[in-house]
Write a structure and sequence with these properties.
Elements (H helix, E strand, L loop, with lengths): L1 E5 L10 H14 L3 E4 L7 H10 L3 E6 L2 H6 L1 H11 L3 E4 L12 H17 L3 E5 L7 E2 L8 E2 H8 L6 E5 H6 L4 H7 L6 E4 L1 E5 L2 E5 L8 H8 L6 E4 L8 H14 L4
Parallel strand pairs: 1-2, 1-12, 2-3, 3-4, 4-5, 5-8, 8-9, 9-12
Antiparallel strand pairs: 6-7, 10-11
Helix pairs in contact: 1-2, 2-4, 8-9
């Protein structure tokens, strides 16, 4: 498993080509060798790859605009070819699909793009938050299930993978190690971030700086399809580059680089 940086963490510093180049240099200096492209500015895919390769960074996953996945699939696939990226990610289920009466429409709408992506030798990756662990009775379903269970049922593994986010599984009150087991053949990419407590409640923290059982989580991931451990921290207490460095140093000390 390779340790990488989810660039959403530093989204403030990737909105133009000059800042992106500076940021990739800092990411490489920390020690990362893989990145996920997410929430970057309007930079051509050719330049994104050129800048990343110049710093020794491999692009392994994206979060792509939902409308491009649905309606601009061919061009999106071509751009991922340019970047040398196999995994095309959806960052979240749009709000309208999160209701019982519309949940099944997600499968109807995304089935053809998912198949087209798979036929191109790539894989559509679904990134979870906590709401996917809420049980609903999807219209036409025989029984109540969690939204994530419906997704597992509606899409075969060759057409949808899951970017399992450790923090959001924990935030849902679910067992991270249990869900690693349930999705073990469908998680080539995993998001790592920790959960700590402050006076105001739970907060996101660098990996191994909070209260989650990362020793157990990482050991469990070793026996799965996971290839990339991508560090993400949506909200940082201080500099996001410092948070990424703290996570990297902790993971490297535990033997994950």
């Amino acid at each position: 498993m390779k340790t990488g940086a989810q660039l959403y963490t530093i989204r403030m510093y990737t909105q133009n080509e000059k800042d992106f180049a500076r940021s990739m240099k800092k990411i490489a200096e920390i020690g990362y060798r893989t990145v996920q492209i997410s929430a970057v500015g309007p930079i051509r895919p050719e330049r994104i790859r050129e800048i990343c390769e110049g710093e020794g960074l491999e692009i392994v996953l994206t979060h792509s605009d939902v409308n491009r996945i649905l309606y601009d699939t061919d061009k999106l696939i071509a751009e991922h070819d340019i970047m040398g990226c196999k995994y095309i990610g959806l960052g979240a289920m749009p709000d309208k699909y999160r209701t019982p009466e519309w949940a099944r429409q997600f499968a109807e709408d995304f089935r053809e793009p998912a198949k087209k992506i798979a036929e191109a030798g790539k894989l559509l990756m679904y990134h979870n938050h906590n709401f996917e662990f809420r049980k609903v009775s999807a219209e036409g379903a025989a029984q109540e299930k969690r939204l994530i269970e419906y997704l597992m049922e509606w899409f075969p593994p060759q057409e949808m993978g899951f970017t399992l986010d450790t923090y959001w599984v924990q935030a849902a009150g679910a067992d991270v190690c249990q869900w690693i087991d349930l999705l073990k053949d469908r998680i080539p990419c995993v998001h790592l971030k920790d959960m700590a407590m402050s006076e105001g409640g739970s907060v996101m923290a660098p990996v191994m700086e909070g209260n989650m059982n990362f020793e157990g989580i990482l050991k469990k991931l070793e026996g799965t399809s996971c290839q990339y451990l991508l560090v993400e921290q949506d909200v940082c207490q201080g500099s996001p580059f410092d948070c990424l460095k703290q996570s990297y140093d902790n993971l490297a000390a535990a033997g994950y680089r």
